[in-house]
Write a structure and sequence with these properties.
Layout: H1 4-8, E1 31-33, H2 35-41, E2 44-49, H3 59-72, E3 77-81, H4 85-97, E4 100-106, H5 112-120, E5 124-128, H6 132-145, E6 149-150, H7 156-162, H8 164-173, E7 179-183, H9 188-202, E8 211-217, H10 222-225, H11 247-257, E9 260-264, H12 266-280, H13 286-300, E10 309-314, H14 322-328, H15 340-352
Helix pairs in contact: 3-4, 3-7, 4-5, 7-9, 8-9, 9-11, 12-13
The structure holds ligand F0G.
Ligand F0G is lined by residues 57, 59, 82-86, 153, 183-189, 238-239, 285, 287-288, 315-316.
């Protein structure tokens, strides 16, 4: 199989003979059946595990396109605002293409793994005393004035690359699922999936379209509330966004498909996050678990029918955010003397519980 999303889905992408060949083997991520959660929720649940991408999130699909096109157009530098994953991905692909990369992040609100990635890949990291929405406003203005390419998802090439995840879901299942559940932050990804499902069906590779169900964190649920959230707050820092740039296309995706944009609380997010790891062996980051938390909610209200085939997009790898992981689980490693007797006592103690 050809490597990377550009080689694999070339006819669907805006590439030319001049587009540089760049890939870190992004895409082709697994669609993992979730038997325990399927049983519990009464649906046929699959997980699209985007944490398998080279920098550990779905952003790589769109970033490979955005960076390739920036290079094709002669750009020497790229810039983005980010809650962390976009910056990690931009930094990696910019490094590979030999471009300068500037990332602007909300100070103190980026998960440790993501920040360390941007630093190690050699990006110039600027941490501003504000939130993502404010950072995005700043970089959008700078990209208009300075000789630097914006690689946030308002860059249309990002959406083009990200839509390939919908193609992969259809390729694996033989058709689109009944329901596609996805976390919503800046709302680019839900827009990309919807575009992908529609294009794949038009091309004859799938027969139906899924209901698109997007989930915001309750403390940042601008679309659900119908107004921007000035001070978004959530444990899921990746989607701590109060004024989604792709607001309208996300609403269109939900409406056209017969789905919805809903919200989930931090507690619901963390419950789904723990359940995914504990019962399915799949460790995603908190924002990703919003998709599963949302499905659980829609099962309770009956909005998803029994036995529906549901795909939850797990957008990022759990290792991105070790701090939340350690905070989310009350049981910590036991510290013992380095002796067989002590370890054995602990093993037997555990068995007696
Ligand atoms: N899940 C994760 C892990 C993310 O990093 C993001 C967005 C989303 C979901 C939401 O996707 O914005 O397309 O609706 N992260 C961006 C970033 C904002 O800067 O990394 P969206």
């Amino acid at each position: 199989m050809s490597e990377g999303i550009i080689a694999r889905y070339r006819p669907f992408l805006p590439v030319t003979d001049q587009t540089p060949e760049v890939t870190l083997h992004e895409g082709n991520t697994p669609l993992i059946h979730a038997p325990a959660l399927s049983d519990q929720l009464g649906v046929e649940l699959y997980l699209k595990v985007e944490g398998f991408n080279p920098t550990g999130s779905f952003k790589d699909r769109g970033m490979v396109m955005a960076i390739a096109k920036a290079a094709e157009e002669g750009s020497r530098a790229v810039i983005c605002a980010s809650t962390g994953n976009t910056s990690a991905s931009a930094a990696a692909f910019a490094a590979r293409m030999g471009l300068r990369c500037i990332v602007v992040v909300p100070d103190g609100h980026v998960a440790l793994g993501k920040l360390s990635q941007a630093v190690v890949y050699g990006a110039e990291v600027l941490a501003v005393k504000g939130n993502f929405d404010q950072a995005l406003e700043i970089v959008r203005e700078i990209a208009r004035e300075a000789d630097v390419t914006l690689v946030n998802s308002v860059n249309p090439y990002r959406i083009e690359g990200q839509k390939t995840a919908a193609f992969e879901v259809c390729d694996r299942l033989g058709d689109a699922p009944d329901v596609l559940a996805i976390p919503v932050g800046n709302a680019g990804n839900i827009s990309a999936y919807w575009k992908g499902f529609k294009e794949y069906r038009e091309a004859g590779y799938s027969g139906k379209l899924p209901l698109m169900c997007g989930f915001e964190a309750e403390g940042a649920a601008a679309i659900v509330r119908g107004e921007r959230v000035e001070k978004p707050e959530t444990v899921a820092t990746a989607i701590r966004i109060g004024n989604p740039a792709s607001w309208e296309t996300a609403v269109t995706a939900a409406k056209e498909s017969g789905g919805l944009i809903g919200s989930v609380t931090d507690e619901e997010i963390l419950n789904a996050y723990r359940a995914l790891a504990r019962w399915e062996g799949v460790f995603c980051e908190p924002a990703s678990a919003a998709s599963v938390a949302g499905v659980s909610k829609l099962r309770q209200t009956g909005e998803i029918p029994d036995h529906a085939r549901v795909v939850c997009v797990l957008t990022g790898n759990g290792l991105k955010d070790p701090t939340t992981a350690m905070d989310a689980i009350p049981v910590k490693p036991k510290v013992l003397p380095c002796e067989k007797r002590a370890v054995l006592a602990a093993v037997e103690d555990k068995e007696e519980e």
